[in-house]
Amino acid sequence: MTGYTFAVFDMDEVLYDFEHPVRLQLLEELTGKPQAEIHEAVWGGPHENLAEAGQPDTADGYLAQFADLLGYPIDFDTWADIRRRMMRPRKDVLDMVRRLSKQTDVALLTNNGMLLKKALPVCAPEVIEIFAEKSHVSADFKARKPEPDVFLRICAHYGHEPRQTLFVDDRDENIIGAEAAGLTAHLYRSPAELAAFLRKCGFNPG
After folding, report:
1. Which element (helix H / strand E) includes 87?
2. What is the pLDDT of residue 2?
């Protein structure tokens, strides 16, 4: 038996490998601009954190902002393809979450803007298969990890108590934020450690 009714998972570096250098290389090939210049222009300022908190609040708005920061026109298909190519699914972890989804309510919560949400079927089809409409970017809740509000809002949205909710992420600060909101959190390091955590919480990860 378990007292937990909800489990929330991060995406990058938990369910998928996340290779930012690959993205920079692909953007360099696209634009002809140096990778360091691209990184500073797009990710060096406050824009990405604001987007993760819902500013801008649409996929089109995010894409327009990205193109402006990049200084190069980019369409949705190109952006989504680059995002897809910088990710690799971690089959063992995805299979574990797939099994868990048969035992309790599960959701995805990744610090990202609204454009990634639109692109998830292209970038991360496994996420859509497992989480369906519960595949969330932080922008959906107008707050970003590690702010406790984002955890409280996703729990409230699905009618679960924070004390009955598990959270898995690869970043220490997000674990601290989740615990401050009352969730039971696990710092992801390996599939074996995740399986042990889920067993301790009363689930059968397989």
Report:
1. strand 87-89
2. 79
